[in-house]
């Protein structure tokens, strides 16, 4: 009987230690992120359907600047945001769609993922090895519109991969490599002025 109680106690204790460690890792990631004014990187985005078919893959350049400005460059598409407005420019059709940041489905918010999501989620360490740590965030309630998020960080606590699974079991994976921090990126990089001849669709 004493042995059974001891085993149960150790299982519960391990869970508590793991939760504390996960919270500590989140704190380290948030502290590191607070020191980053901007970043630029190569990115790979993979979208997996719920049927498990071959993913749709997209590669390009990713730029971020505090507080919520971003720029995504791919072969035939340019997405630019200054944190308030999003410009989605299709190079092949020479058309730009302008929308508010909060209402744009293409918006990818590092501040939300790093600073807001953890407080609304249960946290669990799913991988810990030299050079990489992976955390799983599971929403505590229905305020967030996803089933889970996996966050992978490197040895310097910089995010390298975000994997979001929605309620339809679709998986969105966003990976960063060749990350360069604090480059003093110009604010002009995060605004878009349509040139003459570009069709403009303003949804604001």
From TrEMBL:
An annotated GO BP: lipoprotein transport
GO CC annotations on file: periplasmic space
Signal peptide: none
Pfam family, one: LolA
Location relative to the cell: Periplasm
Major localization listed first in the record, in broad terms: periplasm
Keywords: Chaperone, Periplasm, Protein transport, Transport
Family: Belongs to the LolA family.
PANTHER family per UniProt: OUTER-MEMBRANE LIPOPROTEIN CARRIER PROTEIN
Quaternary structure and interacting proteins, as annotated: Monomer.
Listed name of the protein: Outer-membrane lipoprotein carrier protein
């Amino acid at each position: 009987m004493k042995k059974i109680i001891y085993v149960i106690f150790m299982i519960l204790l391990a869970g508590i230690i793991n939760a504390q460690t996960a919270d500590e890792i989140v704190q380290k990631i948030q502290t590191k992120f607070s020191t980053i004014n901007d970043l630029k990187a190569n990115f790979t985005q993979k979208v997996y359907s719920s049927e498990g078919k071959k993913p749709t893959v997209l590669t390009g350049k990713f730029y971020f600047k505090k507080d919520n400005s971003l720029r995504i460059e791919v072969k035939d598409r340019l997405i630019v945001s200054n944190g308030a407005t999003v410009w989605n420019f299709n190079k092949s059709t020479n058309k730009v769609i302008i929308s508010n940041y909060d209402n744009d489905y293409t918006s990818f918010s590092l501040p939300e993922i790093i600073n807001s999501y953890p407080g609304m989620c249960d946290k669990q360490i799913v991988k810990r090895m030299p050079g990489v740590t992976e955390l799983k965030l599971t929403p505590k309630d229905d305020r967030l519109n996803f089933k889970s998020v996996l966050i992978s960080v490197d040895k310097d606590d910089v995010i390298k991969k975000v994997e979001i699974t929605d309620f339809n079991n679709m998986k969105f994976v966003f990976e960063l490599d060749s990350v360069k921090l604090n480059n003093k990126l110009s604010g002009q990089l995060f605004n878009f002025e349509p040139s003459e001849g570009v069709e403009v669709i303003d949804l604001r």
